[in-house]
Amino acid sequence: MCLGLAAALGIGLMALHAQEAAQETHGIAVTNLDRSVKPGDDFYLYANGDWIKRTEIPPDRSRIGVFTKLDEVGSKRTAALIEEAAKGHAGAATSTRKIADLYNSYMDEAGIEAKGLSPLKPILDRITAIRDKKELAYALGTTLRADVDALNNTNFHTPNLFGLWVAPGFNDSEHYTAYLLQGGLQMPDREYYLAESERMNKVRGTYQAHVAAMFKFAGMSDADARAKRVVELEHALAERHLSLAENEDIHKANNTWSQAEFGAKAPGLDWPEYFRGAGLTKQASFIVWQPKAFAGESALVASESLDAWKDWLAYHEIEGGAGYLPKELADERFEFFGKALTGAQQQRPRWQRGVALVNAFLGDEVGKVYAQKYFPAESKARVEAMVTNLIASFNKRIDALDWMDAKTKAEAKAKLGTLYVGIGYPETWKDYSAYEVKADDIFGNVWRGRLFDYKKDVARLGKPVDRKEWSMTPQTVNAVNLPLQNALNFPAAILQPPFFDPQAPDAANYGAIGTVIGHEISHTFDTEGAAFDSKGRVRNWWTDADLKHFEQATAKLAAQYDTYKPFPDLAVNGKQTLAENIADVAGISAAYDGYHAALGGKAAPEQDGFSGDQQFFIAFGQNWGGKSREAALRQQVLTDSHAPGQYRALTVRNIDAWYPAFSVTGGEKLYLTPAERVRIW
Ligand SMILES: [Zn+2]
């Protein structure tokens, strides 16, 4: 489970705003506050209101966050490293040369235009040549990629029929196991196909026109008829899909199927051919995340026409490669997935997209240099001290719980004791030597990159787990909890102002990065973490009474978030966002304790007249300042396990210490009676 900053920020670079470039300050951003708003009425607007008033979303963005500057700094540094590599004349097969070739091949727009559709043609020809459902099954197998992640970076979406996730096993956390997840949709979630609303009807109409346009640009006949078939097939797949809230319930996901059982449990698809295409014939068993969806999708392979499936495959290949094909395809892809679905008005500058691409396929090579250059040992030591402090406060909180069984407490503390906390960068780096990058072949580079990632994951199936392996690069502005490894990653790029500033007072650091660290640690215990023991095994280490209390307390939090409505016709889904909202409440509680432990009884220094506690809460509220376009915000509410930032900031209302800090009293909008406040840890 990640912090959700990527969703809050949008990935990649942002335009630098004049006011953000102004003079450096340390601590909370006083100029971002709107003091005309009462903290007790809307703490989010109080903490961020003036920033919101003066900030415009850049045309190439669907979102912007208060910590734009941090993302900007991190990305500019990354870009500089890549461009430096691209300018040099590194020897063949060196990693610097790979970075340079990958970046340059993307920047070579003239070369891409000159090649036209030729990189795509052999792929489309292979699809045209499919004669029967057996060959179709093999072809579908060849599309399987390691492009989903159920528990770490939580990505349940793949446009391929299914997605592979290789991770420690639910039932054997010492070895890498194969998880299979539902897939087959290009739009972000089943809701886009099934929701009955005027808005979604309109999106679906636009989508079908987009699919037709892609067929035309790819030089295929009968574009309109093909598009209709593809959209109908995706609609049928969507009907078989589980919802995001259901996907997040790991107790429903632990279904081991032997390879031989697929035919009986999910008849329709020729499974032996599928696994042969995927190069997985030797894999004895899989954990099938959504058995119902697998049965449904497999049945559709049998019941729907071969032509419909071939059109679906062709369209998915065109869409998957569109960003690396001539401009008319890349632009049409942006028109739908960028403009129509997120509201962004123009594409990011090409060099920024090139940087994102290199980060996606050679992230650790860049990260190695990034960490060396930009993450001083002193920062690492300071953050490590904060982590120690926060773990101590969680230990104390566990001891103090009156509802938890002594045995459960002992296991919770054992989990804290074995937690691996990675700060800044990993201890070992990914090996890219088997990834072939060519200077003049972006389409092939991307194709081979996706295949390289897949083969690397397949190759380690059954091998012992490296608990210290990272799932984010150092240059990523985010943080993550890896429940099956009982591990946390805090990349170097988030350990910078305004999240972490060695020159800022403790109040601001604990309120900003401290609450983030607490958020991630608490995932160890939340609705998902409660299912994994100290060794990362799936084992129910709670008593029934513990679980009952936890469910009652968390149901109250789900109900609280259900009341938040960003639009009259759309509310936040309290259940879908529950695990993240619990983590916010727990994170802020532990960070607050950690902050006071760090003060060691001394009076906190004031900043601009704000007390230590006020700075702490404002820093937390400012983590979540942001602006979204309507389409992007709607997409987030539907598809993200994190609530929009404007509501995450309001969770201070569950923390007792927030009330005296801002003299919040009954009658103010966020006021909760002590009994109504949600207390979990
Ligand atoms: Zn989280």
How would you summarize this macromolecular structure in one to three sentences?
This protein has 681 residues and is mainly α.
Structural write-up:
The protein is 51% helix and 6% strand. The chain has 681 residues and is mainly alpha-helical. The protein has a four-stranded mixed beta sheet. It has a three-stranded mixed beta sheet with strand order 6-8-7, covered by helices on one side. It has a two-stranded antiparallel ribbon with strand order 1-9. The structure holds zinc ion. Zinc ion binds next to helix 24.
Give the helices and strands, then pairings.
Elements (H helix, E strand, L loop, with lengths): L4 H5 L8 H4 L21 H12 L8 E3 L2 H20 L7 H13 L1 H7 L5 H8 L4 H10 L19 E7 L7 E7 L8 H4 L3 H20 L5 H18 L3 H4 L8 E3 L3 H4 L5 H8 L6 E4 L2 H13 L2 H16 L5 H16 L7 H25 L2 H24 L5 H13 L1 E5 L17 H18 L20 E3 L4 E5 L14 H17 L21 H19 L15 H22 L12 H12 L2 E3 L1 H10 L5 H4 L9 H4 L20
Parallel strand pairs: 3-5, 6-8
Antiparallel strand pairs: 1-9, 2-3, 4-5, 7-8
This protein binds zinc ion.
Zinc ion binds next to helix 24.
Keywords:
6% strand; 3-stranded mixed sheet; mainly alpha; globular; single chain
The amount of beta strand, in percent, is 5-15%
Shape, please? Answer: globular
Tally of alpha and pi helices: 28
Q: What ligand species are in this complex? A: zinc ion
Give the fraction of residues assigned to helices. 40-55%
Rg result? 25 Å
Multimer state: single chain
Coarse structural class:
mainly alpha
For the secondary structure, the number of strands is 9
- Rounded to the nearest angstrom, the distance between the terminal CA atoms is 18 Å
Let me know the average pLDDT.
91
The spatial strand order of the largest sheet comes to: 2-3-5-4
The low-confidence runs, each spanning 5 or more residues with pLDDT under 50, are 5-23
How would you sum up the major sheet? 4 strands, mixed
